[in-house]
Amino acid sequence: MTSIDLNSDLGENVADRIVSDDAGMLRLVTSANVSCGFHAGSPLGIRRTLVAAVERGVVIGAHPGYRDYENFGRTKVDIDSATLQAHVEYQLGALMGLAAAVGGRVSYVKPHGALYNTIARDERQSKAVVAAIRAIDPSLVLLGLSGGVVLDVAERAGLAVAAEAFADRAYRPDGQLVPRTDEGAVLHDPAVVAERMVRLASDGMIRAIDGTDVPVMAQSICVHGDSPGSVAMAAEIKRLLQDAGITIAPFADPR
Fold it and tell me: For residue 125, which of 98, 85, 184 has the smallest C-alpha distance?
């Protein structure tokens, strides 16, 4: 692989819950997964992140999640399909409206947190998310976990898809992410993380938490904006990828 995208989850700050340096991250990434408000962020804060993304020429993606502000969208919700579809449609519409207001456009969708992890395995909830995207704008690309069920569901429904890998998360031998509640689930060393991502981009392999190698094919790498030291981590990943001759470029058209 000679080209890969670098993305981050942004637009999640509010006055009493600052979780990321959006301005710093937008100087490094090629794609921004911008909160749609259900799990984090505020309309004004989200709008400011969108303005900054447009100014930096960063491709904008919608980042919808469960309606779970208290837990930052990281608790699985047992929700019926019709309600989930409506919730995702609502969030996409809101972000697309704000993006249009500041001269930007949404190019892709990356679900957030527990919803993201659930649809990597759960076909029913995957179908509801895919139906929402198709109803709002079937030209939007769906970004999901490499090997996840939702990518197959989306492709069967006619959506374009892209797979991603996580720089700052540990992997299980089956290619799923290690749950955040487990020890060692979140990685913090920029040098270690960057070397892992160079191997991923070059060879399509990543070292699992048990020491085995797992094949992971991805068009995008995520650095969570709310991880400690995330900007330094993203900078080191970008530097090492470029030193290895790998181009950093968005996976989705800016539309």
Answer: 85
Three-class SS state of 199: helix
DSSP state letter for 178: P
CA distance 90 to 234: 31
Under 8 Å between Cβ of 197 and 240: yes
Q: Are 240 and 26 in contact (CB under 8 A)?
A: no
Please name the residue ranges forming H helices in the chain: 22-26, 43-56, 81-101, 113-119, 123-136, 149-156, 190-203, 230-243
- Bridge partners of 220, per DSSP, are 5, 164
Give residues with Cβ within 8 angstroms of 134, minimum separation 6.
157, 158, 159
Q: Count of CB atoms within 10 A of residue 42's CB?
A: 16
Q: Which amino acid is at 136?
A: I
pLDDT, mean of residues 137-166:
97
Q: For residue 97, count other CB atoms closer than 10 A to its CB.
A: 10
Mean pLDDT (the chain) is: 96
Q: Is 22 helix (H, G, I), strand (E, B) or coil?
A: helix
